């Protein structure tokens, strides 16, 4: 089964979830879109596309509080300015080699039992930091979130991430910098218009404690409560993600995962226009 971006209109079922969890009703949505558009146009230093669909990307994760959505846009602009050398105007073609040849990041074609996207990131022995720098891994994740926010189901239900540290060694630990760790956590907590519902750490050896000690100072309480550590006990993971939604690699009932990124990379290329559109946002030059 190939990976497909589901960017059609939100279903009635999704809109019902959005009403309960995000305060979204037709009236709230219409008023918030118009107010955010006006405030964005009035912001002399800020530019983002202001069509309805694009503004929804920032309104849904902020529960339709317009000032919060504008702040998220400003945070995203600040983050882009700070990390211009890594994420600037990165396009899928810039990451093609790292995505297709190293299989470090993948998105399952199915969602979990709550309709959330499942992203798997492998940072253990399969990762050679000399071949794929941590900046490139971040570039992949940053570009992937632009695809994720195209999907109403992902805007509303959010994302869960599985970090797989099987076989983690000093080579990998040394490949992760304090700056790179801070960048990732700042992005997740302040600058990404994505509902990050949970981060699951699996197959992490004792050496992982060194990495987590590096991460700890940058983790805020809200994200800390969404970080779960399972080691090799997949039954603990299954309490959060149903067995039927996971591949055999994680004790699931779905087929063994090949980790080939070839399933989802074509969707990156297919939606390059949207990625370019997203890249246009930020502080005015």
Explain what the structure shows.
- By secondary structure, the chain is of the alpha/beta class.
- It is 49% helix and 12% strand.
- It has helices at residues 12-22, 26-42, 52-59, 66-82, 84-87, 92-102, 134-148, 152-157, 170-174, 178-191, 208-215, 221-224, 234-238, 265-270, 272-279; strands spanning 46-47, 105-111, 117-122, 159-164, 196-202, 227-231, 282-283.
- The chain has a five-stranded mixed sheet with strand order 2-3-4-5-6.
- A hairpin with a 5-residue loop joins strand 2 and strand 3 (117-122).
- It is globular.
- The chain starts with 11 loop residues before the first helix and ends with a strand.
The biggest sheet, with number of strands, parallel, antiparallel or mixed sense and barrel status, is: 5 strands, mixed
How would you describe the oligomerization state of the chains in this entry?
Answer: single chain
Radius of gyration: 19 Å
Give the CA-based shape.
globular
By DSSP, the count of extended strands is 7
Output the number of helix runs: 15
């Amino acid at each position: 089964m190939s990976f497909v971006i589901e960017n059609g209109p939100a279903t009635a079922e999704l809109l019902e979830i959005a009403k309960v969890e995000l305060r979204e009703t037709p009236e709230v949505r219409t008023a918030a879109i118009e107010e955010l558009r006006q405030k964005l146009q009035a912001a002399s230093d800020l530019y983002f596309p202001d069509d309805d669909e694009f503004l929804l990307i920032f309104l849904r994760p902020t529960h339709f509080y317009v000032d919060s959505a504008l702040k998220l846009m400003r945070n995203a602009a600040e983050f882009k300015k700070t990390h211009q050398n890594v994420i600037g105007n990165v396009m899928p073609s810039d990451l093609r080699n790292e995505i297709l040849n190293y299989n470090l990041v993948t998105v399952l074609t199915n969602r979990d039992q709550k309709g959330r996207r499942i992203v798997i990131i492998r940072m253990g022995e399969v990762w050679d930091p000399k071949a794929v720098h941590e900046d490139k891994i971040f570039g992949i994740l940053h570009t992937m979130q632009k695809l994720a926010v195209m999907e109403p189901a992902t805007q509303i239900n959010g994302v869960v991430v599985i970090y797989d540290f099987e076989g983690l060694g000093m080579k990998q630990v040394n490949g992760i910098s304090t700056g790179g760790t801070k960048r990732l956590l700042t992005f997740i907590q302040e600058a990404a218009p994505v509902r990050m519902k949970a981060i699951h750490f699996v197959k992490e050896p004792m050496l992982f404690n060194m990495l987590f000690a590096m991460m700890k100072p940058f983790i805020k309480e809200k994200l800390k409560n969404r970080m779960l550590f399972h080691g090799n006990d997949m039954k603990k993971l299954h309490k959060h993600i149903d067995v039927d939604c996971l591949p055999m690699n994680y004790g699931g009932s779905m087929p063994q995962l090949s980790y080939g990124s070839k399933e989802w990379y074509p969707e990156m290329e297919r939606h390059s226009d949207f990625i370019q559109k997203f890249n246009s946002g930020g502080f005015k030059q």
